[in-house]
């Protein structure tokens, strides 16, 4: 075994082998994979290994598509069979909501060049004569759907990696990972140690245990999962072709041909956790005792749909472990608190995603960043708060039991909550707040007319649509108080604060105390890694406000620039809270609580002051994401309740009150403002999102060279604001929500990133990207709301206050 390597992958399941393969494909041949047993000895060997291309997330769909297309190539490249069967998949909708979901996916498939389209019942019966299609509202057909051989795929990746120089050592358990002061890692095994730059934890079921070797926790929890295979079924035996798989998600089971019988599996409501206190080290090619009773309800539904299954005997039952994250997406990426430690664990659809995941991991390690915005996979979407054992268990139980449920736009699942609350949580609850989970915090989405109300869910307008409109109108006509404690807040202090911020961010930091600037943060490939408002609050002190959910993600970037001696950078997100008081009467509201002059002459737009409001010391910034006259007020967390009570009291006579996050979303879209993770992401270039003017190329800053390179290129896409025809949205009772394809002259040209109703302008609106040159302001386009064409037009300017007069009033 070699003693030095560029990277060591721990774990020889399908994911570890795919990462190893993709590292070699990107040119790293000096890489090693260590497996404690045979390859595939975790979840991999016993998987049903179904493969699907379409996912609600466009980028995950792209990567699943890549994965499905790689298997055949891998076979050719290595000579190792991957056991690929692609007889196609039939997707069935039993409900209106499922039909909306499938039609939306059909529209997305056109945009991304994938095969997924509606077929008639007659055609479906030809494709799968054993299915009873009664009660099915629509049927979609994915010709590439199917399944693979889990061991074949894993070994093909291994072989492909070996062909490019990688080493694989089986029966070589990693027993310790320690980092030396120079940042290199020592990976210990009974067969000797390897020194390496990168450690990659792909230990699957043992991901938690391997993470602990490096002193870190991972929010992961294994469960049992079952499927069974029937004896030969005569009707299948008599066929000269393989049957398509059946994705009847409303029935909550999966079903496909296996041999000459059927394979049926289910994610049951009465699920079972496994190995809560740690995965046993002696577990390998093992299974649990069968417990088919637990999945019987689901299986009965499968038998109703495919009646021959009811007649067949059971040949084999698999009850094996799989390991889950709190939202069922992979925990992927470099751990921000460690140097060069990469995690990739908690993967459920490993065979649909293995290649995409291996490619993303390898790009991140070798090239410093992935080509796509994969925040949905990035482990930084969870903070340390997510390691709470009860929270993880509650979430995993929920995501397991609802594996095939539709996840609606704006859906907020309740399991495991509340986890993190701020002092005004109780007050907000009393006022009817309906909360969402925001980086672990309970955050008001909207205010119902009585406490205890909950969201209804669907693709169409839901119970919150009307009340959110009231909140918007209240703010636009009078004033509103928005809790913005969910923003991330940082304090940078010391003699080197200005230099450090200038070295991190692309804009020039404010020169005088009390001034603020908006600034992009540039990613490794020259895209938008973030946007922030930076305020100079003292000669040597700056206040940075940015996206709350990106706090751990941004830490990776902040850590790339060393802090000067004597200068500190601290997150104040927990110790400070905030409110945005906005609307034409916001000045009058605040004037009731402070002696400070809020007149424009004394307190202009983009300035800040320390003021006392109702006896509470606040940092007041004259900015507002609503696009209206307004102030952001930041106070100590212990003063939050006092300030909130005073603001609400002062607002009452003016007809002002609390406003939630969904109203803020609507108002910022009326103004055409982008938001991180929707319009702003590392995938987009500053000149595609209208932020190039904020990048000051006359100074040095993080990833400036990458930005210079992209600025030379023509934008690939343009961010546009779209007005969707009123009659169309009234007929479908739905607005865009994000992800809907945009068509122009019958051709797919882009997709929506944020969609909402603009209540104060009376327009259904969508922000989105269209291919550069394919459509321009004034052009008629079609937005696929609910997967159906909705007439729309690209706007020349935002419909609310295009001149910014209200903002500066
Ligand atoms: C019953 C069942 C059915 C499934 N069906 C499907 C399906 O239809 N489609 C699909 O896409 N997915 C399916 N899956 C999920 C799929 O199996 C997983 O997504 C995938 O196998 C995860 O692979 P992995 O490489 O991350 O982890 P694992 O397969 O768990 O591999 C981890 C490897 O790391 C090794 N290891 C651990 N600790 C150490 C150490 N200290 N040193 C060295 N090596 C170590 C282990 O021995 C193991 O080989 C199914 C899972 C189950 C349980």
Structure in words:
By secondary structure, this protein is an alpha+beta fold. Helix content is about 25%, strand content about 25%. The strands form 8 sheets. Strands 1, 2, 8, 9, 10, 11, 17 and 18 form an 8-stranded mixed beta sheet that branches. A 6-stranded mixed beta sheet has the order 28-29-30-27-21-31. Strands 32-35-34-33-36-37 form a 6-stranded antiparallel beta barrel. Helix 2 packs across helix 5 and helix 13 (about 465-475) crosses helix 18 (about 660-670). The termini are far apart. Bound molecules: flavin-adenine dinucleotide (FAD). Flavin-adenine dinucleotide binds near residues 12, 41, 202 and 204.
Characteristics:
single chain, 809 residues, alpha+beta, six-stranded mixed beta sheet, 21 helices, 37 strands, 27% strand, binds flavin-adenine dinucleotide
Which geometry do the CA atoms define?
Answer: globular
Question: How far apart are the first and last residues' alpha carbons, in Å?
Answer: 71 Å
Strand percentage:
25-35%
Unique bound compounds: flavin-adenine dinucleotide
**What is the strand tally?**
37
What is the average of the pLDDT values? Answer: 97
> C-alpha Rg, in Å?
27 Å
Number of helices: 21
Q: Low-confidence stretches at least 5 residues in length (pLDDT < 50)?
A: none
* Overall SS class: alpha+beta
Main sheet characteristics: 8 strands, mixed
User: Helicity level, as a percent range?
Assistant: 25-40%
